[in-house]
Write a structure and sequence with these properties.
Keywords: Cell membrane, Glycoprotein, Leucine-rich repeat, Membrane, Receptor, Repeat, Signal, Transmembrane, Transmembrane helix
Largest sheet: 32 strands, mixed
Radius of gyration: 40 Å
Membrane topology: Single-pass type I membrane protein
Strand content: 15-25%
Number of strands: 66
Distance between the termini: 99 Å
Biased composition (Acidic residues): 1184-1197
InterPro entries: Leu-rich_rpt, Leu-rich_rpt_typical-subtyp, LRR_dom_sf, LRR_N_plant-typ, LRR_R13L4/SHOC2-like, PPP4R2, RLP23-like
Shape: globular
Protein name: Leucine-rich repeat-containing N-terminal plant-type domain-containing protein
Length: 1221
């Protein structure tokens, strides 16, 4: 029950009692008040402070005419003093303000001997105690001191009020004391409310003696224990029971007198589980109102027995853990007016039996996993079309077109956001004249919103059309018939000008028009709308101009976001009370010292990053004691970090990268014990990294100090950072050894959540912030956000570290990136390196490491980037497809390292591979055959690559000069219409004429795309599609329309997945092998791929590499799926390339390649945003590149020496070079 409802009940109940007493006593003013009582009231008034003139009428002769005073018309004695404070004009669900009297209660009230009714609720008695003399008002029947700011102990004398029928002490603070036993002596009492009163302990067992009790409210006394509720069996008259008392141990319910006519039962916000049901169903025939919401242990399916509660008008089981479907028997509850099952785990469709609920006024099913077609749902509710005022289906899986709500004339709240509703919004929505809230954001709706859609919605206060594809088309002269409080139009097309109809909305409290294509200067009238706004978001537009003094424009702002625009000028003066300010990604310049003019203890989030701000950082941080997130990165600040930063004791995130900051880290930061994220990269900070970072910042998850001038050794205290996930000290002047205690980084040993998120609660508003960080990934920096929690990285590269690699680092089992390169490390690579099964990147290059590469390294199947170059490693590279898949650059600079992928053979290979019986001539013959085997691979790759792209080579003559004994008898390569034969018997037969090449020309007609164009709508042929994938895999760029490429990738992805044996398994076998069915896997990956709208993910290059050669890289589908998923879990996208299409890979038909004019297409290192990146096939890329570097002419002769340089390179051999023929 909300605070607003309780306030309303308080006033309503007081009014009803007043009416009853007036009717019973025959109140009037025929006699006039008693002077002694009049003087008593004046003394009572004298003890109060009346700020609002509530008692201004208390100056006439007849006190019976005074406000709140009622007298008996027989005796003239005062029988009622009814002075509850009226509410102020501004009131909402969470904030209550009253025109309260202040001060103390005068003992003069004892003169009112005939008083039966005293109501001083909602006034402010300034945390005083309830005066004991109140208990001397012996005739009192109604006493209401609720919401009156009383505290302390209840006077025991209250137990003497033997005539008391109603007592309300709710919403005071009795300081955690038990409910006094003397209340159980009030045997005549019928209504008792002690809610929100901070009572604790066990409920007095004598409460069972209150046999006349009709209504009992003990709710929201969080430490009150009601025992096993056995005492309820004695309350035979009880009709209203409110016991939401978390955490309440589920009682072992005794059988309750089922004859008790219990009609109202509120057990919300407890820890009840399903054992409550048998007790509940004792009241099947009497219950009218049942609230079981916010019981986290109430799980399982909904019992069918609820369908027998035929008298139930109100049922709320929301915010629990219910699952399964909505029972069909719910249709039996024909009296049901309000049904709330929201925020559970329900699924399936809405049962058809709900069509019997013709009295239904409110249906709340939001935040479940319900499905079905929305038009059919509306058909089910047709019986209640005259009564239904609330339909809440938010965050489900409802689909279909937006239905016509004509006929639902009582509808006030329509909330359908976060579903899958499509189509357009019908203009008939504008005929719902009682509509107060239209919330349909985050669907797939589209089309134009015109004045007709909103024409008759004069009561509309809440409008959310955000995250659809709506285009607003309103006349500049249009005046809406409504005054909105809440307006959310993010991602709607409003621009390019600010919509002029907004100037009429003077009651706005929340405004979000972000990402709405506005490219305009903020008009002057716009700032006239902001005085009441607490939530203000105009981010992600192209708004220009400067900002005025914001402190004069907002009266009570909480959240202001103007980020990602083109605003300029200086940072304006801020309003007080602000909690969230984001001005990032603009063109603001100058100093930020003006911020210091506003003492704001509420500011929790401040982001001024990516501007042109300069000067020193101000020294006024102590005034912002609530600051949690501070981001000032990518500006032009200089000088030192102020010592006053240490006053930010609630700070969790500190981003100060890319500045010109100098000096040492201020020691005052050790006071910021809540810090979990520090990014000071790319500054000029110096000195030693202080040991207190480890000892005083226990919550640190990210520490990025790269590219500074820090020196000294890495203190062992850093190992106290048990929560650290990213540690980057690279590119400094650090020396000494790597601490051996790295295994204390326990967060790197276990999986964490996908994101690093902070939640904010400010004045009953709840927001969250997902942190982001730039991480060096495969030699480049990328911003991680949605998968940042998965990144476990240590980077100590480019320092002067010495000593051995501590073997303890291999205990960090979830580490995904380890970079110790460019140091002076010595010793062996730890033999337990293979324990790091999650490792994606390993860079130990440019050190002085010795010994062999541990064989366990080949067991890391996720490893996609490996660099061991420029060390003193020796021996054979361990065998296994993983390590052999990397190119030679990963191993070069180790003179005594041998084995594939290096062309240098290991000595034992030579000894085992060449028996002594062979002659020198045989060796030459074998080497020649080996060489021609590699040549055939290279030429096959070239021809295959050309063939699949439908490239025709006209008349191309290739002559080979070689010894007759040095090649295989026949090498034949045929792709499409190109046939190449190489024969040792007749060198002339190796020439291919153009007529031979043209014989198959008609059978393969190439479809060449107009690169960079979107004109062609025809599907891309499979062969050409593969060629396009190969170009993207080679370059990491794309030239074609993204929608067509997306369809191509989707098709190829499904083809690749279907080739794995799991596709043909049974469903049970698939679940056992994959953790899901094959069809679910394909659907999930395809949906993620198709979700990229603006362009492909920046991992496009790696995705193409995987699709082209999936089974050789990943023999198992589960591994492939994991790799694809991690490459698709990115947020950044690529833009279409405007460079010329690479003609070395794609040539127009009948057009010979230019003679030696093209640069070879380089194979870029694959880079991706995710935890897993897959291995590249180094051999193929290396051979392809080397062959491309050769000049190809129409008549070309390749002799043995040239081929030996291309294929064999400088590899060592015992054979003598063959002689040219």
């Amino acid at each position: 029950m909300t605070m607003a409802m309780r306030s309303f009940e308080c006033l309503l109940f007081s009014f009803l009692v007043l009416v009853v007493v007036c009717a019973k006593a025959g109140l009037g003013t025929t006699v006039g008040c008693v002077e002694r009582e009049r003087q008593a009231l004046l003394r009572f008034k004298h003890g109060l402070v009346d700020d609002y003139g509530i008692l201004s009428s208390w100056d006439t002769r007849d006190c019976c005419q005074w406000r709140g005073v009622r007298c008996s018309n027989q005796s003239g004695h005062i029988v009622m003093l009814h002075l509850p404070a009226p509410p102020t004009e501004f009131e909402d669900e969470y904030v209550h303000k009253f025109q309260s009297l202040r001060g103390e209660i005068s003992p003069s009230l004892l003169e009112l001997e005939h008083l039966t009714h005293l109501d001083l609720s909602c006034n402010d008695f300034e945390r005083s105690h309830i005066p004991p003399f109140v208990a001397s008002l012996s005739k009192i029947q109604y006493l209401n001191l609720s919401y009156a700011n009383f505290t302390g102990r209840l006077p025991s004398q209250l137990g003497n009020l033997s005539n008391l029928l109603s007592l309300d002490l709710s919403s005071n603070d009795f300081e955690g004391r038990p409910i006094p036993p003397f209340l159980a002596s009030l045997t005549k009492i019928q209504h008792l409310s002690l809610s929100y009163a901070n009572f604790t302990g066990r409920l007095p067992s004598h409460f069972g003696n209150l046999s006349n009790l009709l209504s009992l409210d003990l709710s929201y006394n969080y430490d009150l224990n009601c025992g096993n509720l056995e005492w309820l069996s004695h309350l035979s008259s009880l009709r209203h029971l409110d016991l939401n008392l978390p955490p309440l141990t589920t009682p072992s319910f005794s059988p309750v007198n089922s004859s008790a006519p219990l009609a109202f039962l509120d057990l919300s916000d407890n820890d009840y589980d399903s054992s409550i049901y048998p007790w509940l169903f004792n009241f099947t025939t009497t219950l009218v109102h049942l609230d079981l919401s916010w019981n986290d242990h109430l799980n399982g399916s909904i019992p069918d027995a609820f369908g027998n509660m035929i008298s139930l008008a109100y049922l709320d089981i929301s915010h629990s853990q219910l699952h399964g479907s909505i029972p069909d028997i719910f249709g039996n509850m024909a009296s049901l007016e309000r049904l709330d099952l929201s925020a559970n785990k329900l699924e399936g469709e809405i049962p058809k039996s709900l069509s019997n609920l013709c009295r239904l006024q409110g249906l709340s099913l939001g935040y479940n996993n319900l499905s079905g077609q929305l038009p059919q749902v509306l058909d089910l509710l047709a019986c209640a079309n005259d009564t239904l005022d609330t339909l809440f289906l938010t965050d489900n899986q409802f689909a279909g077109s937006f239905p016509d709500f004509i006929g639902f004339s009582s509808l006030k709240e329509l909330e359908l956001d976060h579903n899958q509703i499509n189509g357009t919004l019908p203009k008939s929505i504008g005929q719902l004249t009682k509509l107060e809230a239209l919330i349909i954001g985050s669907n797939s709706l589209q089309g134009v919103i015109s004045e007709a859609h909103l024409l008759h919605l004069s009561r509309l206060s809440y409008l959310d059309l955000s995250s659809n594809s709506f285009n607003f088309n309103m006349s500049s002269e249009w005046v809406p018939p409504f005054q909105l409080i809440f307006l959310q139009l993010t991602s709607c097309q409003l621009g390019p000008r600010f919509p002029s109809w907004l100037r009429t909305q003077k009651q706005l409290q929340s405004l979000d028009i972000s990402t709405s294509d506005i490219s305009d200067v903020i008009p002057h009238w716009f700032w006239n709308l902001t005085s009441l706004i607490y939530f203000f978001n105009i981010s992600n537009n192209q708004i220009t101009g400067t900002l005025p003094n914001l402190s004069s424009k907002f009266d009570q702002p909480l959240y202001i976001d103007m980020s990602s625009n083109h605003l300029e000028g200086s940072i304006p003066q801020l309003p007080s009370g602000l909690s969230w300010l984001d001005l990032s990604n603009n063109k603001f310049s100058g100093s930020i010292t003006l911020l210091c003019t506003v003492a704001n203890s509420y500011l929790a989030y401040l982001d001024l990053s990516n501007n042109l701000l300069s000067g020193e950082l101000p020294n006024c941080w102590p005034q912002w004691k609530s600051l949690t997130v501070l981001n000032l990165e990518n500006n032009q600040f200089s000088r030192k970090i102020p010592e006053s930063f240490g006053s930010l004791q609630l700070i969790q995130t500190l981003h100060l990268r890319n500045k010109n900051l100098i000096g040492e880290l201020p020691s005052s930061l050790k006071k910021c014990k809540s810090l979990s994220f520090i990014d000071l990269a790319k500054n000029r900070l110096s000195g030693e990294i202080p040991p207190w970072i480890g000892g005083n910042l226990p919550n640190l998850m990210v520490l990025n100090l790269q590219s500074n001038k820090f020196s000294g050794s890495i203190s062992p205290e850093v190992c106290q950072l048990k929560k650290i996930q990213i540690l980057d000290l690279s590119d400094n002047n650090m020396s000494g050894t790597i601490p051996r205690c790295l295994s204390n980084f326990t967060a790197m040993t276990k999986k964490e959540s996908l994101t690093i998120t902070y939640n904010f609660s400010m004045s009953y508003q709840h927001w969250s912030y997902v942190d982001k960080e730039f991480v060096k990934w495969k030699g480049r920096e990328f911003e991680f956000k949605n998968t940042l929690g998965l990144v476990k990285s240590i980077d100590l590269s480019s320092n002067k570290l010495t000593g051995e690699i501590p073997k303890e680092v291999t205990d960090l089992l979830e580490l995904v990136s380890l970079n110790f390169s460019r140091n002076n490390l010595t010793g062996l690579i730890p033999i337990t390196i293979g324990q790091l099964k999650s490792l994606d990147i390993l860079d130990l290059s440019q050190n002085q490491l010795i010994g062999e590469i541990p064989s366990s390294l080949s067991e890391i199947d996720r490893l996609s980037t490996l660099d061991l170059s420029n060390n003193n490693l020796s021996g054979m590279i361990p065998q296994g497809t993983q390590l052999q898949s990397f190119n030679t650059f990963s191993y070069e600079g180790n003179p005594t390292l041998c084995g594939p992928p290096l062309l240098k053979k290991c000595p034992r290979d030579k000894a085992e591979g060449a028996p002594n019986v062979y002659s020198d001539e045989d060796d030459i013959q074998q080497d020649g055959n080996d060489m021609w085997f590699y040549v055939s691979i290279a030429l096959g790759f070239i021809v295959g690559f050309w063939g699949v792209n439908h490239i025709w080579i006209g008349s191309l003559t290739i002559s080979f000069c070689f010894p007759q004994q040095s090649i295989s008898p026949l090498l034949s390569l045929s792709v499409g219409g190109l046939l190449m034969e190489i024969s040792s018997e007749n060198p002339q037969d190796s020439t291919i004429s153009s007529s031979d090449a043209d014989q198959n020309h008609d059978s393969v007609v190439p479809v060449l795309l107009n690169h960079g164009s979107t004109e062609s709508d025809q599907d891309i042929p499979e062969e050409e599609g593969r060629g396009i994938l190969e170009v993207m895999a080679s370059t990491g760029k794309f030239w074609h329309d993204w929608d067509k490429l997306k369809n191509l990738l989707s098709f190829q992805l499904k083809q690749v997945l279907s080739e794995y044996p799991e596709a043909k398994m049974t469903t049970d076998e698939q679940n056992s092998s994959l953790g899901e069915t094959y069809l679910d896997l394909v659907k999930r990956l395809d949906e993620v791929l198709l979700s990229f709208i603006e362009g492909p993910p920046f991992t496009l290059q790696r995705l193409c590499e995987i699709i082209l050669d999936a089974q050789s890289i990943y023999p198992y589908l589960s591994k492939l799926a994991l790799a694809l998923e991690k490459n698709l879990l990115v947020t950044s996208t690529l833009a279409i390339c405007t460079d010329p299409y690479p003609t070395t890979l794609v040539q127009k038909p009948d057009e010979p390649p230019e003679k030696g004019s093209e640069e070879p297409v380089q194979h870029h290192d694959s880079v991706q945003n995710g935890v897993e990146a897959e291995p590249t096939q180094g051999d193929k890329d290396e051979i392809m590149t080397e062959v491309e570097e050769a000049d190809i002419e129409e008549d070309m002769t390749i002799d043995m020496e040239a081929l030996e340089e291309i294929v064999v390179g400088s590899s060592e051999t015992n054979s003598t070079p063959p002689t040219n023929s």
